[in-house]
Amino acid sequence: MLKQLNHIAPEHLLSFPRHKQAEADYSAQRMAKFMMVALFFAAGLMLSLGQSQAADRPDSFADLAEALTPSVVNISTTTVVESRGGGSQLPQFPEGSPFEDFFRDFENQDRPRRAQSLGSGFIIDKEGYVVTNNHVIENADEITIYLSDDDSFSAKIVGRDEKTDIALLKFDPEGKELSVVTFGDSDTLRVGDWVMAIGNPFGLGGSVTAGIVSARGRDIGSGPYDDFIQTDASINRGNSGGPLFNLDGEVIGINTAIFSQSGGSVGIGFAISANLAEQVVTQLRDYGRTRRGWLGVFIQEVTEDIADSLGLKDVAGALVASVSEEGPAAKAGIEAGDVITSFDSKKVERSRDLPRIVAETSVDKTVPVTVIRNGKEIVIDVTLGELEVAENDGLISNRPTAGEAESFADLGFDVRPLTEELATQYGLKPEENTVVITSVAENSPASRKGLEEGLIIRRLNQTAITSVEQLNEGISAARDEDRKGILMLIEDAEGRSRFVQVSFE
Fold this sequence. Notes:
CATH class of the largest domain: Mainly Beta
CATH topology of the largest domain: Thrombin, subunit H
Strand content: 25-35%
Largest sheet: 7 strands, antiparallel
Number of strands: 27
Shape: elongated
Number of domains: 3
Radius of gyration: 33 Å
Number of helices: 12
CATH architecture of the largest domain: Beta Barrel
């Protein structure tokens, strides 16, 4: 907005000698001309900026909505719900009894019910392929697709993925010409970009809402591959599975969830990123299922304490807590205690970045993995396996490949070599060259970090521990290096392992 500029009127006029007055008049004229030029320049600049901003902001979404609405479908599902009454025998009443209708309601509970739900989707192929959310069609016995012109078609499931909440449907268009849309590059999105959603909220098909990208890369706790786009475009129940468009008419997200205490939109909606969705959809279409890359590691976040214990320069990467014995990582030489900082030339800033990057990498592809081990950066080539095969074969496990008592009073725990007697006492498998925690002091640094009796110490910092003496030497070395504490990989009786940082008092 241009502010109104007011000329400044003097409170009084000064009297000058004639020649001085002439000089003053000349100076005033020059100043007036200068200010006029500056004013026109400023006005022109502001007008130019205003026009530029206006060019970026659409005057209307009408043309875009009109062009894209035919590609968006309403999805109706029917599910047969088993009876709740258990087949109980109800009393019999004479015909016309006032109790007859009352008890008929209870009788109906013993019969299977048909539950219906609504959602949205979008057509990506003229053959009738439709993308939606998995939760829209999950457990459905019948799926019906409604086009924008109210034509309806029966659809079947081509494939679905619970981990990303994506499903691919197919219906026979019966010669009907379909309007289709394509995926865009969601990585090019910027916070503040305009977006438009079309869907079927509350059964009101063809509803259009618009907003901006509020945030990117949101983790809402729905699964290991969370990479949501947050938008303030109004999204409600029934919008699930519908498209989120950019101004080029490309699908850059699949509307999936909202944050709301009331169940209605409060301006915080989440869409699956198009780049993630497109890859899953392609696999569902080609194979009827997903085929994700598998590395075979269990990881945890690198905290400030952990970074200090390992002597890391940055609080970044994914700390390997354990390695699946028959997994690709173990075969390539990745070890528990390694910090993965890069995978296939893609930076791993946070631990949650790694599962998504690995999953998006092709099965059987050999990729470079950069890790920090004992303060040194090394690159390890790993040939990926397939996650789904590993799950089916039971290859995924939390168990890593892998005397006198010693007391560490300042840390608050005692250890002993694992004997058969101690193994029986703690429910552990007898192992040679293994150290087990035998006591933990109350209100000690160890107890505050959740350490307890019966936990095996597998590693200290990034060194495998095979004896009490070795553990003692490692702790002493950490003190000599003026570390704030130690980082231990501990393992319970079930084979679950995790890193724990314990500070020196």
